[in-house]
Structures are given as C-alpha cells and as structure tokens.
Design brief:
With about 260 residues, the protein is of the alpha/beta class. It has 2 domains: about 90 residues, no CATH class; about 150 residues, 3-Layer(aba) Sandwich (Rossmann fold). It is built from 10 helices and 11 strands. Strands 8-7-6-9-10-11 form a 6-stranded parallel beta sheet, sandwiched between helices. Helix 6 links the parallel strand 9 and strand 10. Helix 4 crosses helix 9 and helix 5 runs parallel beside helix 6.
Amino acid sequence: MDVALLRSLETAINARRPVATATVIDGPHIGAKLLVDEQGQSIGTLGGAALDAFAREHASNFLKSRDDIRAVRGEDLAPHTEFDTALFLFERIQAEARLVICGAGHVGAALATFAGISGFRVTLIDDRQEFLQAERFANQAIELMLATDWTEAVKRAIGNGKGVAVAVVTRGHNEDEQCMRAAIKTDPDYLGLIGSKRRTSIVINRLKEAGATEEQVKRIHAPIGLDIGAVTPEEVALAILAEIICVRRGGTGGFMSVTRRR
C-alpha cells in the first residue's frame, strides 16, 4: 500500500473518521487502491481519472450506507470503459465502536459486559468506587472510570463523539442531567437516556432550557432501548444494546420473520 495512503488511513483512524477504500481485485491494475473520506477527498488511483471520479462518488454513497464491504463491477462505476468487467471491492475502515456508559448499577454493569462481548470498546463511569471493582467484570478490557465530576468525566470519555455511543443509566435525575448536558455537546453517534417517559421528559426539558437545540434533542433516544418487554436488568441491558447496534447498522428493530412473510 502507498505510504501516503497509509498515513492518511492512520490519521483518519486516530481522528475516528470513517473512510472507504476501493481496490481493484479483478481486471487491469489489480491491487490499485483509492482511499476516500466522508468529504469525498481521495488519495491514490484505480488507474484513470474518470474511473477515480466515479469511484469517489460510489465510495461517498457507500459511506452513507451502513455496509462494511461491497463488491462492484466496473460497468456500474464508469460504463463503456476498459474497466467494464473489472471487479472493485469497497471496504469501510474505521476505529472500533465505542460505548460510554454513565452509571455502573445493575443495568450499566450488564450493558458493559454484553457490549464488550459484542466488540465494543467500553468505558463505564460512576461516582461510587465500590461499583467500579474489576472483579465485577469478567472482561478486564472494560475501562472503569471514577467520576469525581460527572461533567468532566463524561467529556473526557467521549472525546470528539465520532464512533461513540453513550448510554446514560445513572441512579438519579441530577446525575442524568449532568451526564446528558456534557454528552449532548459532543454530538455522539448515539445518545440514550434510561427512565420513564415522565423522568426522561423532565431531563430533556431541562436540556432545552439550558440551550440544547431541537435537532440535538430529537436525536436523544429516551426512554432508551428497543421494546422487547424487558423486565430484569440484564434484559434491559440487552434492549439498550440492541437499539445501539440497530442505529449503528441501520437496522429497523423489527421481527426478522416479517420479511419472510411478505
């Protein structure tokens, strides 16, 4: 792989910006590679300016989808060229998905465990040291963060918000509000708040009063989770993780059997 392309790829991953690579896997210039970011900027070439232009457009649309990989024939990129029969592979490359959980009670602890198993890099925050004991978690990769100040801890954990989901599952209104105020400013990929409709409405109204925009508020998932009839903390955690994955992958959250019956 070209050195400049490798450096650009490293920069994008470090900044948690998704990029797409287009690679010739069959036809002229096998192995040629083009890297395209979310703004449509590219590095590398597939063998021709016209083909690169079509590939950039396809890569941009590919990044807007939730696909991780897609094979495309040249005729679908640039019809009536020498690349008509060539085969191109588009791949999404991004940093691993992250989940920041505010609140290490029964739901938060279960969510951290399930998310870790599912491949997320997990940060679990609480202001109670006794809830952040490593022996509570079989997955030692879970980052345990003690919050002496919820606002600062949440901001530090989320970073720039790229590729980050945030689940606020604390024990009370005040903690919820502090976490939500900090999280909403980072514009994470997903932001959810646990609680009844009444409880979450109170927090959201306070966020509006504090200056949150309508667009920011609309993106909040509250009450958090898919409706699976969850009762136990573990079931609630599964419902939350299911919704996070659904949003990340572009799913519908419906029954798979429905599509078979249509």
